[in-house]
């Protein structure tokens, strides 16, 4: 019997050693892979920035040349008008001359201005200016998520799956410090590289990073780990969703489609908005969302937020006293409350966080890529329950990120339930 026990112990130690070796290989492989991919994307961004600079320079040069030509033509035309006016005055003075001899002499010296001539065309061709960046539109389409496999919305905190396995197909259960996943299943599955469009994949592979590999930034910064202490798993309220908004992934994801799904219910937004089923009236709460692109608005609102369009705005988040919102646009962001906007710098990345501290009357929006940094903080005395609420432009997708270990604090279970 002792012999069997000893045999099992030896086998367990052997398996443990093999597991540790595989884990070490996985961590090394993942760091190398992340560094290589980061370097390739850095090269791509540098190439795009250089292309942008050249394109803008070409536009500025063409504009300067065209406007210089326009000013030259303007001076020519004004000079011709002045010559005509001078000739007209001399003719009138001559007609008033009473001495015939003087009239004959001066009329022989009077010569009209030369012909006006045609207007010189200004060299300005919009199509020619856009021709140089037409390939970027195709590249943009190739790099979009459409047609590729769905990805987990939050960045991986620990890529450690496969030892010597093919790095194109990785899956691993996140550890306690791992970031939230879109499905909340605890397993991260990265799409195979073959799912990317061939042209985009080829472009990425051909971009060689100059010099040594760039250092890999820490996947999860300390500030974000601290925010996770109050993490809440949220779901969308289907009854509040506009008829163009489709919910999926058990209420974690919403997508705007052109075709309406059905007739709107009495509690659904007339605007392209949806709110969460959970609300909060005290304590501190944090959640994260991933957007497919810009042109989205996220915020919180009292239950009284109007379901109908009010004024010229496309959404009503932050347009009145009962809501606070962050509008993310292509080149900038705006913080809205009570109809007043504060312009903010552009948001980098598509992963955003919201920290709601009801005790101190604070609502902070965070940009989480490449690291957590605050975008704007509202200070207010919140007097009613607050519901997370969102607006999406056509074609956009928004995902509520979940963390497996996230739970509501005691006493907030009923409070976080959806409205009756």
UniProtKB/TrEMBL annotation:
GO biological process, one term: positive regulation of autophagy
Keywords noted in UniProt: Coiled coil, Metal-binding, Zinc, Zinc-finger
Annotated Gene3D superfamilies: 2.60.120.920
GO terms, molecular function: zinc ion binding
Annotated spans, Disordered: 151-190
Pfam families xref list: SPRY, TRIM_CC
Domain B30.2/SPRY span(s) in chain numbering: 214-407
Record flagged with keyword Membrane: no
Residues forming coiled coils: 2-29
Protein name per UniProt: Tripartite motif-containing protein 65 isoform X6
Keyword Zinc: yes
Domain of life: Eukaryota
InterPro entries linked: B30.2/SPRY (IPR001870), B30.2/SPRY_sf (IPR043136), Butyrophylin_SPRY (IPR003879), ConA-like_dom_sf (IPR013320), E3_ubiq-ligase_TRIM/RNF (IPR051051), SPRY_dom (IPR003877), TRIM65_SPRY_PRY (IPR048222), TRIM8/14/16/25/29/45/65_CC (IPR058030)
């Amino acid at each position: 019997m002792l012999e069997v026990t000893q045999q099992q112990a030896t086998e367990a130690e052997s398996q443990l050693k093999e597991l540790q070796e595989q884990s070490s290989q996985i961590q090394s492989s993942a760091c190398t892979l992340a560094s290589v991919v980061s370097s390739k994307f850095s090269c791509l961004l540098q190439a795009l920035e250089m292309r942008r600079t050249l394109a803008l320079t070409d536009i500025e040069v063409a504009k300067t040349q065209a406007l210089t030509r326009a000013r030259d033509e303007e001076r020519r035309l004004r000079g011709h008008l002045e010559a005509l006016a001078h000739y007209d005055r001399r003719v009138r003075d001559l007609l008033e001359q009473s001495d015939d001899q003087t009239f004959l002499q001066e009329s022989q010296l009077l010569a009209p201005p030369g012909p006006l001539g045609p207007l010189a065309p200004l060299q300005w061709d919009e199509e020619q200016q856009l021709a140089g960046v037409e390939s970027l539109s195709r590249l943009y389409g190739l790099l979009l998520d459409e047609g590729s496999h769905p990805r987990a919305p939050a960045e991986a905190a620990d890529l450690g799956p496969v030892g010597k396995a093919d790095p194109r197909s990785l899956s691993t259960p996140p550890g306690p410090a791992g970031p939230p996943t879109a499905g909340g299943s605890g397993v991260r599955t990265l799409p195979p590289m073959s799912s990317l469009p061939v042209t985009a994949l080829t472009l990425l592979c051909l971009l060689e990073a100059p010099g040594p590999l760039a250092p890999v930034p820490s996947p999860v910064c300390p500030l974000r780990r601290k925010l996770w202490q109050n993490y809440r798993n949220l779901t969308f309220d289907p009854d509040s969703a506009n008829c163009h908004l489709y919910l999926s992934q058990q209420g974690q994801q919403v997508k705007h489609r052109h075709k309406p799904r059905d007739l709107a219910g009495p509690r659904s937004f007339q605007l392209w908005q949806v709110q969460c089923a959970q609300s909060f009236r005290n304590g501190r709460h944090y959640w994260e969302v991933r957007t497919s692109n810009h042109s989205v608005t996220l915020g919180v609102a009292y239950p009284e937020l109007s379901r109908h369009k009010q004024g010229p705005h496309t959404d009503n988040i932050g347009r009145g006293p009962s809501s606070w919102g962050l509008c993310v646009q292509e080149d900038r962001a705006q913080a809205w409350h009570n109809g007043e906007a504060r312009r903010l710098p552009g948001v980098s990345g598509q992963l955003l966080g919201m920290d709601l501290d009801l005790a101190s009357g604070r609502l902070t929006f965070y940009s989480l890529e490449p690291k957590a940094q605050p975008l704007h903080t509202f200070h207010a005395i919140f007097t009613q329950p607050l519901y997370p609420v969102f607006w999406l432009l056509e074609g956009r997708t928004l995902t509520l990120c979940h963390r497996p270990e996230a739970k509501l604090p005691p006493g907030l279970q009923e409070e976080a339930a959806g409205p009756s």
